[in-house]
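sry for the spam today, last one i promise. struct tokens for design, 133 residues
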């Protein structure tokens, strides 16, 4: 029973945290949501560092998305082409909050071995949105 209560509380907390940007439709909206959750301003330089570095695992974000997320990447295992991550170079990027969360969850787990914090997501998104043509 205690486990069920803990799960319900966790779900309620997640819902409350996501409530501010769960329906965001722009990268800026999502960045604002992550920044609010983090309780501190996003730092693009930290985002670039997180994106381009390995964190004790086999891959970095840049392993598939390239160190220059303004161009197409390629999945390291499947070879599938991945469109640019920077929204200025791929207008579909970060326009669906549920999709953003899904891919952060999967990729952070592969790269860092855990889910990314709101601050880490904000930092990465701050860097990606700073890249302009």
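last one done:
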């Amino acid at each position: 029973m205690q486990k069920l209560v803990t799960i319900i509380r966790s779900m309620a907390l997640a819902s409350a945290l996501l409530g501010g940007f769960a329906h965001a439709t722009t990268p800026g909206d999502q960045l604002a949501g992550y920044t609010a959750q983090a309780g501190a301003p996003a730092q693009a330089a930290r985002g670039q560092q997180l994106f381009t570095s390995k964190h004790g695992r086999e891959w970095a974000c840049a392993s598939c998305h390239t160190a220059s997320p303004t161009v197409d990447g390629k999945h390291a295992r499947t070879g599938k082409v991945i469109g640019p991550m920077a929204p200025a170079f791929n207008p579909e990027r970060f326009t669906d909050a549920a999709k953003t969360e899904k891919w952060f969850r999967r990729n952070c787990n592969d790269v860092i071995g855990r889910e990314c914090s709101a601050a880490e997501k904000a930092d990465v998104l701050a860097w990606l949105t700073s890249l302009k043509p």
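DSSP finds six helices and two strands in the chain. ok im logging off now
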